[in-house]
Amino acid sequence: MLLPLLLWGATMHEQKWPEGETYLEYLEHHALPLKPLYYDLDKEDQKLTEEIITGVRYQTLEDGNGTIEQVLIPVNDELQLHLYRDRAGAYACEILPIISETKRESFTITIESSPYNDIIAATGSTRVAQAFVSGFKNSLNFRTDLRKGDPLVMVYEQKYRMGKPFAEPKLEVAMIEMRKKRHYVFLNSDDRYYDEKGREIEGFLLGRPVQNARISSRFTKRRFHPVLKRYRAHLGMDYAARSGTPIHAAGSGTVVFAGVSRGYGKVIKIRHSDGYLTLYAHQKSFRRGMVAGKRVKKGEVIGYVGSTGLSTGPHLHFGLYKNGRAINPEQVVQVTTRKLGGVQLQAFEQTKENLSREVDLYLAAAQRPKKFAFIDTFCYIDSETCQQVPYKEEVLNNETL
């Protein structure tokens, strides 16, 4: 039988993860046992606990005496930590897939002040506004060329978790008309963005952090391990290289952390523009002067490949984050922008035609945006298996599913 967590005198709390708090500190602050909930985990799961994002919403279930029964903590868009207390009173931790629903959203508005401010006013979402503006950042000047009344259209995918927008929106097509001329950004089948002429949009382009190194492990948000029979994630790219090989800053920015963590060993984090952050883990040593606050340039040596932390051999674990969420570095690591040609261009032209036709339809219909409403959250768990089940808005009070 499936019952809401608010039955049996239990209470579910939703909170935001505190800034600067580690997973181990969270366990200590709530008097939860460290051994079963951290030290008994394998090294990959231990490293995954370091991916918890400041401000992410997590849920805690407490019984009538205030004892924590279950905790659900998202670590990326696909996986979450599930801490639970079994019937014998012992605690355990497992990795579960996040149950979410992906919806395709679209809207058109006319400019009143700026695309960023007007999209926030219409949708209530800064993430949607950022996704639109980022696509045109290096090609258009909204300050000088935009006029009041100019139309814009946006089509994107949005994940919803327990009724609320979750994770970054994925832009499919954006159009803005300026001085009677339309400008587009299209998502192509290669997961990169291009303008109407098939030229790649030059956004945040990274240099390779280790030169001439072999990629030994690629990025994945969620993978079910066929042998271990459990979900795993690898939120970055591993470059195998000899110990002592120089590590280069993938982009210009400011060092925000240079120190040691249990999972990543000696690690440097660099903050870049537009909400990007890069992470360089398992280093043997840092280059002299690498401290928080130091400005670095793209290509500058920041440290040296090693095997510190939870590592099985010399390599660089390279992570890329956008507004705190891990994204695939392979989508942005390159030297120069690309221009499509041949068969690839023909396929893109078909994609462009289909998406442009959609833009025309939304303009004609004056498709209004969805205003994001934040509703009360209930999290449902199978009382027999302690597994999360899909959120159902129609469930009321003491009704069972």
Please supply descriptive tags for the structure shown above:
single chain, 401 residues, alpha+beta, Nuclear Transport Factor 2, Chain: A, Glucose Permease (Domain IIA), 3 domains, ten-stranded antiparallel beta sheet, five-stranded antiparallel beta sheet, 7 helices, 24 strands, disordered N terminus
Radius of gyration of CA atoms, rounded to a whole number: 23 Å
How much beta, percentage-wise? Answer: 35-45%
**Poorly predicted regions:** 1-7, 374-401
- Whole-number average pLDDT? 83
Number of strands: 24
Per the principal axes of the C-alpha atoms, what is the gross shape?
A: globular
Oligomer: single chain
- What distance lies between the first and last C-alpha atoms, to the nearest angstrom? 7 Å
For the report, how would you describe the main beta sheet? 10 strands, antiparallel
**What is the count of distinct domains?**
3
As for the CATH topology of the largest domain, it is Nuclear Transport Factor 2, Chain: A
Structural class: alpha+beta
> Can you give the helix content as a percent range?
10-25%
So how many helices? Answer: 7
Please identify the top-level CATH class of the largest domain.
Alpha Beta
CATH architecture of the largest domain: Roll
